[in-house]
Amino acid sequence: MDYRNLGASGLKVPVLSFGAGTFGGSGPLFSAWGTTDATEARRLIDICFEAGLNLFDTADVYSAGASEEVLGQAIRGRRDAVLISTKTALPMGDGPADWGASRSRLIKSVDAALHRLGTDYIDLLQLHAFDASTPIEETLSTLDGLVKAGKVRYVGASNFAGWELMKSLAVSERHSYARPVAHQVYYSLAGRDYEWELMPLGADQNVGALVWSPLAWGRLTGKIRRGHPLPETSRLHETASFGPPVDDEKLFDIVDVLDEIAAETGKGVPQIAINWLLSRPTVASVIIGARNEAQLRQNLGAVGWMLSKEQIEKLDKVSAVAAPYPYFPYRRQEGFARLNPPLV
After folding, report:
1. Domain boundaries, the chain
2. CA atoms within 13 A on the CB side of 20
3. Nearest 10 degrees: Cα torsion 214, 217, 218, 224
4. Residue closest to 185 by CA, chosen among 194, 197, 177
5. What is the DSSP letter of 129?
6. What are the residues facing 156 on neighbouring strands?
7. Is the distance from CB of 215 to CB of 188 less than 8 angstroms?
8. HSE of 148, CA atoms in CB hemisphere, 13 A
């Protein structure tokens, strides 16, 4: 397992990390992801350790805190061997104090997460979404205080728009607050919007990307193909409306090329899709998920080898989409591209 620095920090993270959204699954979304209990989670974490994976990502909103609880139980007695990433800001209830990134909510949320995780510090705390109702100075000063108190080691964001992340970086720099070093983002062969603005921002400001849903909400597993119905066991039957939109015909074209490369390399379709992401600028770690040992071992097989330049170019071409304004002239017109060449 290779390790990369997380953005402008000294924190070294594995190129693959484990998403604990399947732990303790409950509710219409998370129960479809998985219902892993502490015993099963401990076994999956053992396998991760064997592969050199030590970063585990969760959130307070995952199964109303049950994911954090199961993760905490599964790592009991070996806290120093793991990195914990969790997120907060999304609603945990209907009350006015149950959502957002205000000072009171953040302090309360971090204390609750620490209790559920059974630890006294969080390695990486990310704002799960931008809270436009709270002054960013209040949010960032509170995060800085949590870092100084030793409850949080590093801070980051998730699902921010470009201006929201840049504003956060500017305010943190102006006031010498703890600076966001990570941005957890959706990015996959079937969803490359991250490249328009957030990737250049991450490269310019040295913010590392933690990629969620690298298999496009389960669509790049190799089980979904043109002319075939969804497998009966696919979680997309229950969860498709929660995930990012995907153009089906574009998806099938991508899967066709993944199949070609799978035949050339002997690797699985999910392994190729994840390996492609690891070659992209700013990507620090790709978050993999697994409901069982077989899925986990397959996803761990995405590292330790490299796609050829020609294979990457095939995947780039088949997954490319037209850039929206104001990005398209920088992709299509030489004069614009000369001033601001694309990263990929």
Report:
1. 3-312
2. 38
3. -110
4. 194
5. S
6. 126, 182
7. yes
8. 9
Q: Which residues are catalytic?
A: 62
Structure tokens at 245: 């939109």
- Placement of tokens 């790592």 in the chain: 75
Query: Which residues, 6 or more positions from 77, have their beta carbon under 8 angstroms from its beta carbon?
Result: none
List the alpha helices (DSSP H) in the chain: 27-33, 38-51, 66-74, 103-117, 136-148, 162-175, 198-205, 236-239, 248-265, 269-278, 293-300, 309-319, 328-332, 334-339
Pick from 46, 150, 141: which is nearest to 101 by CA? 141
Model confidence band, residue 237 (pLDDT cutoffs 50, 70, 90)? very low
183 phi, psi to nearest 5 deg: -135, 115
Q: How far is CA 308 from CA 52, 220, 222, 314, in A?
A: 24, 20, 20, 10
CA pair distance 255, 315, nearest whole angstrom: 10
Q: Please give the backbone phi and psi of residue 221, each rounded to the nearest 5 degrees, phi first.
A: -90, -10
Contact 104, 97 (CB under 8 A): yes
CA atoms within 13 A on the CB side of 90: 17
Q: Give the pLDDT score at 228.
A: 65
| pTM for the model | 0.94
Please tell me the number of Cα atoms within 13 Å of 9 on its side-chain side.
Answer: 23
Beta bridge partners of 73: none
CATH match for 3-312 among 3.20.20.100, 2.60.120.280, 3.30.565.10, 3.30.160.270? 3.20.20.100
Q: Classify residue 78 by its DSSP letter.
A: -
Candidates 17, 11, 115, 120; CA nearest to 60 is 115
The answer to whether 221 and 269 have CB atoms below 8 angstroms apart is yes
CB burial readout 41-80, b (16+ within 10 A) else e: bbebbeebeebebbbbbbbbbbbebbbbbbbbbbbeeeee
Q: Are 271 and 300 in contact (CB under 8 A)?
A: no
The DSSP code for 340 is: S
Checking if the pLDDT of 52 tops 50, the result is yes
Using one digit for the tens of pLDDT, what is the confidence trace for 252-290?
Answer: 999 999 999 999 999 999 999 999 999 999 999 999 999
